[in-house]
Amino acid sequence: MNLVKQKTDQAISILNELDIDIWLTYVRKTSEIHDPSLYFLMEDSWLTWQTVLLITKSGKKIAICGRYDVTNLEKIGVYDTIIGYDESIKTDLIKVLDEIDPSSIAINYSIDNVAADGLTHGMWLRLNKLLEGTPYLERLVSSEKLLAALRGRKTELEINKIKKAVEISENGHKKVTEFIKLEMSEEDIEKMLLKFTKEKGVTVSYPPLIHVGATTSIGHGKASSDIKVKRGDLINVDYGVFFEGYASDLQRMNYILREGEIMPPKEVVRAFETVIRAITTSAEKLKPGVYGWEVDKIARDIVIKEGYKEFMHALGHQIGRNVHDSGCLLGPKWEKYGNSPLMLVEENQAFTLELHVYVENHGYCSIEEDVLVTKDGCEFLSVRQLELSLIRL
Amino acid sequence: MNLVKQKTDQAISILNELDIDIWLTYVRKTSEIHDPSLYFLMEDSWLTWQTVLLITKSGKKIAICGRYDVTNLEKIGVYDTIIGYDESIKTDLIKVLDEIDPSSIAINYSIDNVAADGLTHGMWLRLNKLLEGTPYLERLVSSEKLLAALRGRKTELEINKIKKAVEISENGHKKVTEFIKLEMSEEDIEKMLLKFTKEKGVTVSYPPLIHVGATTSIGHGKASSDIKVKRGDLINVDYGVFFEGYASDLQRMNYILREGEIMPPKEVVRAFETVIRAITTSAEKLKPGVYGWEVDKIARDIVIKEGYKEFMHALGHQIGRNVHDSGCLLGPKWEKYGNSPLMLVEENQAFTLELHVYVENHGYCSIEEDVLVTKDGCEFLSVRQLELSLIRL
Questions:
Q1: In degrees to the nearest 10, what's the CA dihedral of A388, A389, A390, A392?
Q2: Among B79, B103, B147, B248, who pairs with B63 as Cys (CB 3.0-4.6 Å)?
Q3: Do both B27 and B123 map to the same domain?
Q4: Best mutation site among A67, A220, A340 for testing chain B: the one with the most B CBs within 10 Å?
Q5: What is the pTM of this model?
Q6: Number of domains within chain B
Q7: What is the pLDDT of residues A39-51, one digit of tens each?
Q8: What range does the domain containing B135 cover?
């Protein structure tokens, strides 16, 4: 069964669970603005004119599209009814809605969940205009719950793609460990990883982040050509790939031993162990039915209790069609995260677990693992890094 | 000067022309949903948290972004002020607006222009929440006029990129003419073009459309593996590429001579000549200050007068950062095109001129050229196809 068939079937079962009559995705020129829901509604191709894709609680899959897009939608083999129009979508849309007479219509807008927010404001206004004078205008609801479930709950096909993406990232990280030389710049490491990614026939899920030593720029900054590997440096690499549209996201740590050093300095060891313990302890609590913020708090409390500066990001985001997938977030209740930390963890969601502390004079100490929520806990999709990789150069 | 610098400077001058105080672009997780305006506001990188990019009439360029995105925005070298926040964008945004006290704030939503409609409905609601209780809520206007001008009026840097994209497409079309053999399928031709595109180090601006003979599926359908080249077929190929982010879009025609044939049949010649004449005549009328629909009507009238079925699409769309670029459209006043055919043509806009007629038993006869509007007319960016390419196999 293909993925679009699998996910649209899953959408039907979620519509029943949430008691929503139809899910209506309204898009135009998808090469210009791409509603993230389209990943589950069609294969990788483009729609030119205004198109409505409808999934109903009763199991119908209907597309209304510009005449010249009909063949493309037919070839997906998922929609039972495909209606092509020439001048305006209005007549066909109203006709289809009249036949179903839905009492609730989920559309893709969401204040908090970017992946459920594919309807632009102009298209919202347009939809209001199209539905003017019909009873449907007052039956519009947000699809955010539907989409959080649909994106979050991975099917076996999706899990296997993520596992493959994780495996490729792990090999990339191993390559970094072998590749590092003194005087190599952050940019050199980035270039090697980009080359590796290309050779594997995949794409990065995010521009690789390379953090070398104490002077690196932390966060989403680009790799520097001036910052170079030297002894005593902590080297952090954040690298993930997309495999057939599904992302991995992993961070690994290396330490460059100083001359005569057998072990890293105590403060480096303590930092690394704190990060590992925070991941282990929070992973033990991660299971269906807990709130996202609860899991975040466990790791955050450990870091703060150890006297480190609090990390100013969430402990874990979902991964899937995007490297930062939306829905339930293992994060603190900060305004910028909206309601996502207040959502419940569900089975078959894939999360990252990631956090960092900073070690004066050595650098950024950060690990990120990928996990899958199981029936009563979680399993690691990545082979965990439990020991700091020590490099003698 | 880099493109972002050039386009943001151009935005300042358009803000002055339209007397709008500021242009405010509000985005989040741009890897998930990408506001098309970002092409002109930053380089190809991603913003993770809610970000506001502000361009003011008085010439200021201000960014307010999540702490970890600061470095990325700094590296673009275009924003004078970059403010990083941790928990919420609200305080900094209100502070910046209070300092400017703009009487009009252009934001990216548009009923008719997809390229000016990058603000999602959820972000619109969020912006309303952020600005609640401030005077700014009532000062929001659509940026569609600003963006139509900014996207439409190509700078020299942009024109050169389009010219290069046109040249690569033309070479692809030449390759098709050399490549065609009897019994070759539409899909074979498509594959060859995709390979050619990859070798040139570019990407297609649209999946190539291959129309072989009378049984082809017209429009945006995928190439068929069953429909194969035979004598007497008209072969139409619609193929464009992106060169450094800028698109070309060209259609070329070939005819496979039948045994003993020196010239194609009369009805094929008449169809081809009608298409060519419609392009020539409409190009003669294309200049700054005419309405989009006026140019479309010239070509449409010629086709109808010759007794052919009317083509059910616009004569010409703009090309640029997208292959179907928005703003003024050389199209009929159909509901689905909104106000775009009612807009005026401006200097330095790049358009396609394309139309087709169908020839019973032979196939789809369609040509598409790319043109640039000059001070008092237009110039062809492509070397026009004025003769049907005749292939003897």
A1: -160
A2: B79
A3: yes
A4: A220
A5: 0.83
A6: 2
A7: 999 987 788 889 9
A8: 3-151
